[in-house]
Amino acid sequence: MTIDLPFIWMAFKEIIKSLPITLILTIIPLVIGFIIGLVVALVRIYKTKFLYQVGNGYVSFFRGTPIIMHILVIYYGIPLIVDQVSSKFELNIQSSKIPIILFVLTALSLAAGAYLSEIIRSGIISVSSGQLEAAYSMGMTKLQAMVRIVLPQALAQSVPNFTNIFVGFLHTSSIAFLVSEKEVTGAANIVASTNLKFLEAFIAAGIIYWGLTIIVEGISFFVEKRVTLYSRGGVS
After folding, report:
1. pLDDT at 236
2. Residue 15 forms part of a structural domain
3. Mapped to the 3 state alphabet, what secondary structure does 173-225 carry?
4. Where is the ABC transmembrane type-1 domain positioned along the sequence (predicted)?
5. Nearest Cα to 64, choosing from 118, 114, 103, 109?
């Protein structure tokens, strides 16, 4: 058995066309997940009545179960609920018309929120309480102190963890091909099945993932360097 090197390049050019979908399945869930994670982290830190237990349960469930399960449950569960509600209230809504990508984005966003909440929470806790006391002594409210003092430091310290989550969800987006969403892995599977050259096709897909990971890590290194200079009072 020999590797068809020219076919790897041909597969690469075909597979990379699906890169926008992969980026959408990575970036949008992380943006939505960051908002969810921030809210959940604050609820858990301040132990908001009732919501505290809900937040704990949410984080425990989504971090304690595989993301592929989240996608499949939402993919099969939401259409069932939509059809039943539509039938009961005569809404004339058909679940079959809902784009598959919305199910995947919903599942990934909820999972991202759980993981990011832990990163944000640990970052907030790491900021010394003395800084909060100083902020209060200057007349700042809890919200002002959180936004102006705590969160900037917490997020800056969490840059490496955010990078790991981004890379992790970049690779996790490959699960979407199980529900017929054509991202990088799905495109590789189609190319491989059409040409019966699975090794070459997945080598091409691996190169794409590897290249994206290198770019993300490079951006992270730059951001982390800038943050370190700023925290030390330096200039660039």
Report:
1. 41
2. no
3. HHHHHHHCCCCHHHHHHHHHHHHCCHHHHHHHHHHHHHHHHHHHHHHHHHHHH
4. 19-220
5. 114
pLDDT score at 230: 60
* Number of independent structural domains in the chain: 1
What is the pLDDT, as a whole number, of residue 185? 95
Which CATH number do you get for residue 155?
1.10.3720.10
Question: From the first residue on, what is the mean pLDDT of each consecutive set of 10 residues in the chain (236 residues)?
Answer: 89 96 96 96 90 96 95 94 89 87 96 96 88 84 86 88 95 91 94 93 97 95 80 50
144: in domain? yes
Is residue 121 one of the residues assigned to a domain? yes
Residue type at 175?
I
| Exposure b/e, 75-108, CB count within 10 A at least 16 = b | beebeeebeeeeeeeeeeeeeeeeeebebbbbbb
Q: Is 134 helix (H, G, I), strand (E, B) or coil?
A: helix
Please state, as a whole number, how many other Cβ atoms lie within 10 Å of the Cβ of residue 187: 24
DSSP 49: T
Instruction: Report if residue 4 sits inside a domain.
Output: no
Buried b (16+ CB within 10 A) or exposed e, 28-42: bbbebbbebbbbbbb
